[in-house]
Amino acid sequence: MSGPRVVVVGGGVIGLSIAFHLAEAGVDTTLLERDTLGSGASRATADVVRSYFAGNPVSSALAVRSLAAYHAFPTRPGIDLPLRQVGYLVLFTEADQVTAFEADLPAQHAAGVDVNLISAQEARERNPLIGDFPLVAAAYSPQAYISDTTAIVTAYARAAEQAGATLRTGCPVTAIDTRAGLVRTAAGEVGADAIICAAGAWSASLVRGAGVDLPLTEPIEQELLTTDPLPPDTPDIPVTLHAATGLLVRLRGNRLLIGMGYPGPDREAWRRQVAERLVATYPSLAGLALHTAVTGLRDASPDKTAFIGHHPGPPAFLYATGFSGHGLCNAPAAGELVRDLYLDQDPGFDVTALALSPRRAG
């Protein structure tokens, strides 16, 4: 492989997707990861791939494109991505939630999302665990799948290496010098004709050092909980979100995997709140103990939409960060967009909606 050398910083699912798409296009690509592949935000996901992001049709459009790419992955020799369709259900307990959903619906449909309003009765039929609390209606999208993030990380890593990319782990990046085209690591400097930051929760300081002031929050710790084993007759259910509280549940084996926002400084108080909300929403689960399933750091942007942009060089600097928990759902499209921006190709997507702008900076 010859030509300009590109260095990708970050070995999560976003960075690996970028490395794969660049290498597949014939670009000399090296990826640097501070720890092991997928050890950041990619480790702390609910393993859900979905296309509907309420109030965020840009992320939804990225997810629709990504979902098509995930479905195409099993055609690659030796690489398999598990995808089990379960659907995505959002519970509305207030009339204004329905009003907001209906206002957002045309943009979601324009983005290619299959989502519609269903009755409270149909919601309970789809998820029989839902208790007898005031439920106004629900949104339902069949485009939601249970996958395996580790398998996705492995698949992209293998595909990237097969395409000629070099993946270096245990190589933390300490600084990016875009003027000199250097990536500084604990093991020395790496020269590059283009540098791409996809470092997730560690992106903020790196992009600032590169002269790009993205309004990223400091790393946020995510925690997912799991229940004791469920009764053997527990029905299969969609991934289900309680819109008012952010309680998200899905089946994982014979247990329930649970998320609800971020723990914050008082973790025990947060866990009590999760337990209370779980029982209020699903009374049949009363008495089941909750345990930590996984924790990990996550990046975030103010509008919960990724920042993807390009500062032409040489040396060029590109960034793909701030996915705010949408990374697994957006990764294939992110890799394609960064590749096309770097190669100055038509990405088939309005990338101006993703780049740093005065509106998004505010």
Total DSSP E strands: 20
Can you tell me the overall shape? globular
Low-confidence stretches: none
Q: In angstroms, what is the radius of gyration?
A: 21 Å
Whole-Å distance between the termini? 42 Å
- Report on the biggest sheet: 8 strands, mixed
**Approximate strand percentage:** 25-35%
Strands of the largest sheet, in order across it? 6-7-5-15-16-17-14-18
SSE ordering: EHEEHEEHEHEEHEEEEEHEEEEHEEEHH
User: What is the mean predicted local confidence, pLDDT?
Assistant: 93
In DSSP terms (H or I, runs of 4 or more residues), the helix count works out at 9
Structural class given helices, strands, pairing? alpha+beta
Amount of helix: 25-40%
Model description:
This protein is an alpha+beta fold and 362 residues long. Helix content is 30%, strand content 26%. It has nine helices and 20 strands. The chain has helices at residues 13-24, 57-72, 95-110, 120-126, 149-162, 203-209, 267-281, 327-343, 358-361; strands at residues 5-9, 28-32, 48-50, 84-85, 88-92, 116-119, 137-141, 144-146, 166-168, 173-177, 182-185, 188-191, 194-197, 220-227, 239-242, 247-252, 255-259, 290-298, 307-311, 316-321. The chain has an eight-stranded mixed β-sheet with strand order 6-7-5-15-16-17-14-18. Strands 9-2-1-13-20-19 form a six-stranded mixed β-sheet, with helices on both faces. A three-stranded antiparallel β-sheet has the order 3-8-4, with helices on one face. Helix 1 runs parallel beside helix 8 and helix 2 packs across helix 8. The longest helix has 17 residues, at 327-343. It is globular and about 60 Å long. The model has no long low-confidence stretch (mean pLDDT 93).
